[in-house]
Amino acid sequence: MTARALVTGGAGFIGSHLVDKLIADGHEVTALDNLSRGHHRAIDLLIKSRAANPRPWFIHFAFAAATGLKGDLDEAKAALAESLKLNPEVDSLARLRARRPWGSPQYWALFEKTAAAGLRQAGFPEE
Q1: Three-state DSSP state, 31
Q2: CA nearest neighbour of 80 among 46, 57, 103
Q3: What pTM was computed for the model?
Q4: In DSSP terms, which residues pair with 29 in a beta bridge?
Q5: How much is the pLDDT for 36?
Q6: CB count in 10 Å sphere of residue 67
Q7: Which of 59, 69, 96, 117 is 20 to 30 A from 38 in CA distance terms?
Q8: How far is the C-alpha of 68 from the C-alpha of 65, rounded, in Å?
Q9: For residue range 22-68, what is the model confidence (pLDDT) as tens digits?
Q10: 25 φ, ψ to 5°?
Q11: Whether pLDDT at 74 is above 80
C-alpha cells in the first residue's frame, strides 16, 4: 500500500535517509526543510521530492531558494516560476513573511542568509 508522507527536516542527515527509505518503499514523499543546516544531498532530495510530488508549491519554492543560493539561476528561476504558478499569492519575500508570522529572530536571521538570499538571486522581489 502506497502512503503519503511529509518529512520535516528532509534535507538533514536523519530526514534524508528517511526520505530515501520511503521513496525506495514506493511511498509518495514530500521533504520539507528550510535548508539552514542540511547536508550536501539537500538539493538532490528536493529534486526527488519535486519529481515524486510536484503539486505542493513550497517544494518548488525551496528548490528555487537552494539552487539560487548555489548559483544555478536558470534552474532557480524555473522552479520559482512553477511555485508562483501553483501559489500566486506568495509573490514576494514580504508576502512570504506575512504568511509565516512564527519563528524566532534567530530563525529569520538565518532565513535571510540562506533561503531569502537564494530567492533574491533567482529574481524574487522583496516587496
Answers
A1: strand
A2: 57
A3: 0.70
A4: 5
A5: 65
A6: 24
A7: 96
A8: 5
A9: 888 888 887 777 666 655 567 777 777 788 778 888 888 888 988 88
A10: -85, 5
A11: yes
Average pLDDT, the chain: 84
CB under 8 A, 24+ apart: contacts of 86-90: 86/55, 86/56, 86/57, 86/60, 87/57, 87/58, 87/61, 90/57, 90/61
Q: How far apart are CA 34 and CA 66, in angstroms?
A: 9
Per-residue pLDDT at 97 exceeds 70: yes
Integer CA distances (angstroms), 96 to 13, 14, 110, in order: 27, 27, 15
Copy the grid coordinates of residue 13. Answer: 542527515
Number of helical H runs and strand E runs in the chain: 7, 2
What 3-state DSSP class applies to 26?
A: coil
Measure the CA–CA gap between 23 and 7, rounded to whole angstroms: 11
C-alpha–C-alpha distance, residues 44 and 51, integer Å: 11
